[in-house]
Amino acid sequence: MRKEQFIATAMAFVFGCVVWSGWSGASAQMFNLASGDSDKPIEIFADDGIEWQRNNEILIARGNARAVRSGVAVNADTLRAYYGEEAGGGTKLSRLDAAGRVKIASDAETITGDTAVYDMEKAILLVKGNDVRLVTDGDEVRANRQMEYWETRQMAVARGNAIAIREGKRIQAETLVAFLRQNKAGKSEVFRVQAFDNVVIKTKQDTVQADKGVYNVESGIATLTGNVRINRCDNQFAGDRAEINLNTGVSKLLTGPGGQSAGQPGSPRVRGLLVPGGPRPGDTKCPG
């Protein structure tokens, strides 16, 4: 059977029998496949055919498979759609599995990876792979294990050597939680990042490490807590809390949860190791 025949068969099946829960025009720029309107159909295309296992309630599309609805597309080598009969008649999609060169894209967001599971009932997308990436108009979040995208919370959780980048500024940790929103231009953007375990931030002068961190993307300020270490050339500083301004490159080592001065009750000490011949205040490069 020719490719065009496969496509025609797929579209006729889906329009007549399957309704995909998802997509709301009110959130046209954000992923919303599972949490939006449920009365809009989906088109499915495949180069190598579509298999309908009626008894198992599975639809399998193979070969450059593509599922499209209202500007959102799921692309992969293979797509598996799991659906069930509803009490009042009709069908409801419960899960979509994608395998091989996975790409989920809207006009403002793209997630790529090796495999994906879209839980349509919980509105959670799970993408796995050695190089999983979420890309918006100005942001990139990536990880080498997996990423979860929570539709209703507009939140992405990147796990495994996770990195968030905007305009060259980056924060790295074992786990990053990125919160997204629509900006004034109607585009998707990351506005806040929470970092957990082995947090690392690099500025022009410093490498800062900590256990946890919160990064306000708009202000460029990251607040780090827990075993904070700042390395500037051979000089080393340590404390419990730091404030890093990624816009200016200025790093501040603070003494307590509220930034109180040393010597006040309950304030921990800041420790430092100054190496002779090291950088002077205002230096942007290491000596030599």
Question: What's the CATH topology name of one domain?
Answer: lipopolysaccharide transport protein A fold
Top-tier CATH class of one domain: Mainly Beta
Structural class comes to mainly beta
Query: What is the average per-residue confidence, as pLDDT, rounded to a whole number?
Result: 80
Number of helices: 1
Strand ordering within the main sheet: 6-7-10-11-9-8
Strand content: over 45%
| Percent helix | under 10%
**What is the H level of CATH, i.e. the homologous superfamily of one domain?**
Lipopolysaccharide (LPS) transport protein A like domain
Short description:
The protein is mainly β and 288 residues long. 5% of the residues lie in helices and 55% in strands.
List the main descriptive attributes of the protein structure presented here.
single chain; 288 residues; mainly beta; lipopolysaccharide transport protein A fold; 6-stranded antiparallel barrel; 1 helix; disordered N terminus
